[in-house]
Write a structure and sequence with these properties.
single chain, alpha+beta, six-stranded antiparallel sheet, globular
């Protein structure tokens, strides 16, 4: 009984601080988010099954400065070559979610590739073998995890596929 009361007090204190337990667990699970000031809103759409999964998320910020982004360990300013790689990765992502019938994501997907500029920042990881060749064939194994920060809109987009 004593442990239950202590747990409820801790939950109430965390909730009163405006940072719920679910929110704290979520925030800690995505370490890239911790490199930036706290976001003000988030939207997350996902489709998971036994062999693969996909996420599309948007984190809206108020005042992320260029200095914040430069100090972030994982983020890099986009170069022309990076923009080509990012756009190609997003095209692969879009093809995958459209071809695999991931309605929760496709119904909420609103990323505009024309916002990709050299004024923005990104962080990307990919597993070996994830690519789309010139014939449109996507590899059968791998993953891509792309964080794209649009400095103009102050939105961090997250694209993730695991196949």
């Amino acid at each position: 009984m004593k442990k239950l009361i202590i747990a409820l007090v801790v939950i109430a204190a965390v909730g009163a601080a405006g940072f719920g337990i679910y929110e704290a667990m979520f925030y800690n699970a995505w370490p890239v988010l911790q490199e930036l000031p706290r976001y003000k809103e988030r939207e997350i759409y996902s489709v998971d099954n036994f062999t693969d999964g996909s996420y599309y998320a948007k984190f809206t910020y108020r005042n992320v400065t260029e200095e914040d982004l430069k100090e972030a360990e994982d983020f890099s300013r986009i170069t022309k070559e990076d923009a080509t790689k990012i756009l190609h990765s997003i095209s692969c992502y879009e093809d995958f979610i459209n071809n695999m019938g991931m309605e929760e994501i496709t119904e909420n997907y609103d990323f505009d590739k024309s916002v990709v500029t050299e004024d923005d920042y990104y962080y990307m990881e990919s597993g070996e073998g994830f690519y789309q060749d010139e014939n449109g064939n996507v590899s059968e194994t791998g993953f891509i995890s792309l964080y794209y920060f649009d400095t103009e809109s102050q939105i961090l987009y997250y694209f993730y596929n695991s196949i």
